[in-house]
Amino acid sequence: MYNYKLIIAYDGRRYAGWQIQPNATTIQAVVADAIQIITREKVKLIGSSRTDSEVHSLGQTANFRCSTLLDLLTTQRSLNGLLPSDIRIVDFSQVELSFHSQYDTKGKVYHYRLCCHPVLLPFDKGFAYHLRQPLNLEDMQQGASSFIGTHDFSSFANNANRGNAAQNPVRTLSRIDLVEENNGIIRLEFEGTGFLYKMVRNIVGTLIEIGKGKLSPTDIPHIIDARDRRQAPATAPGYGLWLIKVDY
Questions:
Q1: Cβ contacts of residue 28 below 8 Å, gap of 6+?
Q2: 3-class SS of residue 210
Q3: Each residue of 95-109: pLDDT tens digit?
Q4: Does residue 110 have a known ligand-binding role?
Q5: I want to staple 186 with a disulfide (CB 3.0 to 4.6 A). Which of 17, 53, 114, 199 is the partner?
Q6: 51/238 Cα distance (integer angstroms)
Q7: Residue closest to 194 by CA, chosen among 27, 50, 64
Q8: How much is the pTM?
Q9: Which residues contact 4 (CB under 8 A, 6 or more apart)?
Q10: What is the mean pLDDT of the chain?
Q11: Which one of the listed residues 11, 33, 52, 152 is annotated catalytic?
């Protein structure tokens, strides 16, 4: 038996997220079907992160086991030949049988892109949330600092979470940075040991309200302490979110 690790980049706009679902096209299903064609085995493809509908990736990590010894470069090329152009295998390697792309994660990096310019450029459409107004970035960064550290993030997690993560809302964030790109794009960079269901998008929605002046940075500790999703603002759209990297 052999174990293979993939790093996958994708444009999530036309997919119902990563995880296989009935009556929906997902990244996991499309990649697993391509692997089955090459290996002639039905494989279980395990992903590091269950990204939602329209969410993008530069660094989704997955693994599968099969009984076939595969040539790494040939298999990577063959997979990319079979996959649609909005999904690409950027790295393909053999790993120890014990490697598990979900359970072995040490941390993840996500980016969320906001456009604060009145005009969204065509190549950012579907890849950044267009707000059409300036935001107070200083207040947003101040508010972001309250999320750093280990907290109960119940106020920023949807109850539809899956698996044991729903029962343990405590997570540790090491970094939230606001970076100004060109053309009015603001990139929010999140780094932490793990994230709850829609946690990043819920935090972004809250920081946007701070940037608009509708919330104060000093409101964040109170919202965290409430441990109540109803106390935090609406979720930011999925298409602004990018899974950048998974650490092991």
A1: 18, 19, 20, 45, 47, 62
A2: helix
A3: 999 999 999 999 999
A4: yes
A5: 114
A6: 9
A7: 50
A8: 0.93
A9: 63, 64, 65, 66, 70, 75, 92, 93, 94, 95
A10: 94
A11: 52
